[in-house]
Every structure is written in structure tokens, then in C-alpha cells.
User: Fold this.
Amino acid sequence: MPIQPVKYIWMNGGLIEWEKATMHVMTHAFLYGTSAFEGLRAYDTPHKGTCIFRNDAHAERLLYSAGLYDIPVALDRDGIMAACREVVRANGLASSYIRVNAYLGYGELGPYSSFDKGEFNAIAFPFGAYLGEEAARDGIDVCISSWRRVAPGTIPASAKMAGNYLSSRLISREAHKHGYKEGIGLAHDGTVSEGAGENLFVVKDGKIVTPPLAASILNGITRNTIITFAGDLGIEVSEQTIPREFLYGADEMFFTGTAAEVTRIRSLDGKKIGNGKTPITDALRQKFFGLFNGETEDERGWLDPIG
Ligand code: PMP
Assistant:
């Protein structure tokens, strides 16, 4: 996906011009991968103007990820949220994707190195449907990847670190090479984990199941949103270990993620999922997108207007 430059980037304390947001090749994060990040979306809503979706939850996850690796972040939760609002506002973007990075900069060598302060930036840019407009409309064809996700006790899957996406790259590149839109990674034990950049939900007999946090998944904010909305709709959701073969007998399957939003999966490894009818996925999609067109009441204050 090509980068669409805008005017300003929020970097280490304020807005600077896009071209000036550069870093040294001896940046610790570049040498050792010490970079925590978030991806958020701002939606153009008819009733509340431009709003960042679950800005608070993303700020909290960023602080969790950075904290796990002892990466100091100059801003607290409210400061991070404010920087995100400001960078969207400054660039005059009605809707956008926001990428926030908290990482170790220039000054020390070695994986152990302590830093008094970390670097921080927030970037907002125009962004459409991540898996394509057609995917959003018709659903996608996916495969099981031959690559496993990181195992427990190795690299924490629940911290959103740039380096975790090496696994995502292998899964995604392999899937595309074989003509699929996306791949699903299995956990170290062969049970189902998640997509390269998405959490997975499976519908069977009117109930939803999704892999647990222990299956090397990211604790997705869209995942949490969908679990909450399913509760509102009276649909049972359980987080449980899923054997691969369970997927082929599913009635419906879908991915969630900030970029992927809620995307229906229509086939797995060339086998059609269910009978093509997806009432539960459709109901959840309607409730999810309803937040941004005003049809779903924002009962939990998940829309953060940029002001
Ligand atoms: N899993 C992975 C590996 C991801 O990269 C993402 C996208 N951030 C997700 C799940 C979904 O998380 P969220 O809903 O918080 O965007």
C-alpha cells in the first residue's frame, strides 16, 4: 500500500513538516526492533464530526507495550490521545489511519541499553479499506499459513511491537503468493491463532468462538469491540482453543482489526465457509459501522471527537 504524505507529523513534542520527520541510522529501534506502536482510525461521522475510535484503549495498549520493554514514553495516556487528535486536525483529514510509534532513539548500543527518554511520533494519513473495497463487500479468501506465530515465553504476542510483524510478513507474503488475500497463523501447538494483522472469529450454531489470549494473539481492540457488541445482541461468545479442523465446518468466519475493520471470510484453503449466508457477521458489521454513521448509539464513549 503506497504511503500518502500529508503536511505534518507530530514528533517529540509538537508538529513538524512531513519531510523533516527523519531519524538516524543508529537509532536503537532500527538496530534492535525496540519500537512499540499503535494503529488507529479516525472516522468522519455525520453526528460528531471527525472522531478517533477508541483513542483511550489504543493509548493504554501503547503504554503497556512500551512498558514491557522498558521504553520510556514522554506522554501519558491523555497526552498520547491529544497528540493523535492534533495530528488529524492539523492535516485537515476527515477520515484517516493514525500510526503512533514509541521507540528507543539514538545514543546507546546493545539490546540491554537503558534510555532516559524515548522517541514518540504520531502520523495521520488517508486510508481506505485495508483489504480492498471488494473484500469489504464480498468477503475474502484466506489460507492457513505454514508459518506458526510466536510461542508463549518467546516474544510477547500481546505487546504491539514492530518486530512482531516479521511473523505477519511471512504469513501475508506466503498467502499472497498462493493467491489468497490473507493468511491465518497457527499457534506453536498447532491450534488457531490469528491473521497477519487481524483477530479471527468463528460462528457455529449461532454461537461465536475466538482464540484466547494464550494462543499468541494480539489483544485486539476491535476484537474487544465485537465481543462487547455480540453481548449487546445476545449472541454467546467464548474464548477457547480452536483446533484447525473446526474452521472448515464453520457457518461463518470473519476477521477484525483497526485496518481490516470487520471483514467476512468466504473461503479457507479453497473450501467455502458455510452456505454463503452470514447473518451474525452482518449484524455485527451493521452495529460496528453504525457507530460511525450514527445508527449505533455510542453507549461507551468510544468515539473521541478531534474537536
Ligand atoms: N492481530 C494483529 C497481529 C494485528 O496486527 C492487529 C492489528 N492491530 C490485530 C490483531 C487487531 O487489533 P486491533 O483491533 O487492536 O487493531
About this structure: The pocket of 4'-deoxy-4'-aminopyridoxal-5'-phosphate is lined by residues 39, 168, 194, 197-199, 218, 220-223, 256-258 (CB under 6 Å).
